[in-house]
Design a protein that fits this description.
The structure is a single chain. This protein is of the alpha/beta class. 38% of the residues lie in helices and 11% in strands. The chain contains 10 helices and 7 strands. Strand 1, helix 1 and strand 2 form a beta-alpha-beta unit. The chain starts with 47 loop residues before the first strand and ends in an 8-residue tail after the last helix.
Amino acid sequence: MLGAAVAVAAVVGAVRAAPAEKSPEPAQPDAPAVVTADTLHPADGKLRIIHFGAHPDDAEIRGGGSGALWAEQGHHVQFVSVTNGDIGHWQMAGGPLAQRRADEVKAAAQVLGIESSITLDIHDGELMPTLENRKTLTRLIRQWDADIVIGHRPVDYHPDHRYTGILMQDAAYLVTVPFFCPDVPPIRRNPVFLYSYDHFERPVPFRADVVVAIDSVIEKKVDALVKIESQFIEGGCGGHLRPLPDEPEAREQRRRDTREAFKRRFAAVADKHRDRLIALYGEEAGKKVRYAEAFEICEYGRRVSDEELRQLFPFFPAKK
């Protein structure tokens, strides 16, 4: 598997290492370098969130609204695509598609206002829960010094989704163990680990522990998603079933239709988990929420009280 043996994430198109006879160049700000104790992020009183999606679009779909809300309050958010998405289209593939999809999610991140978006160089459809990949996610969580880690449940139709969830789970304790990946300092305390929303029922249905109202950022989220044109405008792997028309007006109509479809999708999450919205926002506000994202707390991470949960999601109103 190309890139599966790398110790730390490789951004698509990342700068190559300097020749062995020369001193290595300092890492650039966006380079996914292995961190050392003196390169950890200084405490600034802000939360640090890392969201793992299996492909370049998954974190954006499942957590783009919450990411935008955190970012608006100055918190640090990083989206990571665990595979490069290089077979996720009906007309193109390989390196050109991987580069295109990496560029698309970077553009989406700019719209959302989040700090960082990186794509690992692992082939789409070939992710496995190997030791090397476990180390990669562990290093990334430590590098980001995360308070919150989000990823898929290991209950899903797509193997890349399932294995992203397993890899996240496997890192949930090891991020604190000093001599696992000793080249990166262990995180100070185990983060809170969350599963992103899905609709699968077997063997265990999704439990909505946290439901976030995203009404105030819904346009921003949808604007970000339509930046991912290869998937949501051109149809990704299934684009041959509904090819993008050539006429400019028809193309614009496709974009409008896509935006409305996304809004219906996020409205359905709010309607399905209305009781939890009311519990978190109060009856009056909870009933008015139109669009939402939902998360389940993973029991392998740090367990939190209701009070601490509200600190981690500071857009919830104070409990009366």
